[in-house]
Amino acid sequence: MLMGYVEFDDQGYLRDARSKDSLIEHIRAIDRDRPVLMVVFAHGWKHNAAPDDGNVQAFAQFLGKIAKADADVCKNSACSARQVVGVYLGWRGLSNRVEPFKTLTFWGRKGRAHRVGTDGATEVLTELAKIKATRPANRLIITGHSFGGALVYNALNQLLIRDTAYVGKDGRVVRNVANLVVLVNPAFEAARFNALQRKASAMTFTPGQMPILAIFTSQADTATKRAFPAGRALATLFSEHSTAEQKRQNIQAIGHYAPYQTHTLMQLATPSTVEFRDFACSWKAYSNGTTDRWNVGAVALARTPEKSESSRSSLESARFNPYMVVQVEKGIISGHNEIWGDEFSDFLYRFVAVQGYSRKCGTTDNAMAEE
After folding, report:
1. Within 10 A of 173 (CB to CB), how many other CB atoms are there?
2. Which of 94, 183, 209, 279 has its C-alpha lying 20 to 30 A from 9's C-alpha?
3. 3-state DSSP call for residue 291?
4. Cis upstream peptide for 100 (omega within 30°)
5. How many CA atoms lie within 13 Å of 352's alpha carbon, on the beta-carbon side?
6. CA angle at residue 351 from 347 to 354, to 5 degrees?
7. What is the pLDDT of residues 106-155, one digit of tens each?
8. 344 close to 296: Cβ distance less than 8 angstroms
9. What global pTM score does this model have?
């Protein structure tokens, strides 16, 4: 397992371009020898890339879990030698250590996160995407938390919209940007998601379509549920909106905007088995539409029932929508920053591990096949 850092200043510039180039070249060198699974993480507000930052330490532990799960996934298959590489995107999420000024940086840090995403982060993510494309067994997972989620979404939004125009021969949307983009308690307004949601609602998705973007927001995230809309209400005080609903979208954080929610992540009263074979096979059943709930350990991912007035064909298609907005029960993520708890991190690394794979189920064959 390898973990590297790429840092940006407030203008979105790379703090050390040579360090970034060295990291990218090192990953390319690994790729020339064996497949790579690249996991990117962009931290949020009140954090940075300091060695003692809690996000740095938690991400390193998360990579360890990913590496173990990926080894189980790749056992006896072409990706068995795959190297897990973590890339930590650092920026000045923590710009003041003294309260109340630390909390008052909310508005300024949101703007900086968007700036970093628009400029420097796009460069890094596209270089990693190019490495992903060099061989079928390579994987790229991009994650972000809080304003780091806004940073990632700002960097990828236009690319995700572009990819809705690319449908493979199997009728599924091609995952060009990354194998999976995961945002946790992201701090950006629902209006930013409108174009992608509108494109998705007009498309027909087929069974087996793998997730492209998964947004997880806790019911207990008061920062995005209360503080964020309060800040947005002030920021948009003199903005023109064509409808009351458009104004609501421009104020509410994406994860708390009910019309866009597609799934719920819930706690299970009786935890299910966590043997890899079992949850991998149950994922296959879930992605193919045999069931609308994926039980994995102590939690379950459930599709939200669609509105009954929709046509039967659109209801079926919506079940396989790869742009997921997931409401997370507060017992799983207890607050805005509590994203590294066992239940959610265990779910997340398993969710990442099963992406892009299929396996024979119902037999004793452990072989896994690449997507």
Report:
1. 24
2. 183
3. coil
4. yes
5. 28
6. 140
7. 555 566 766 776 778 899 999 999 999 999 999 999 999 998 999 999 99
8. no
9. 0.90
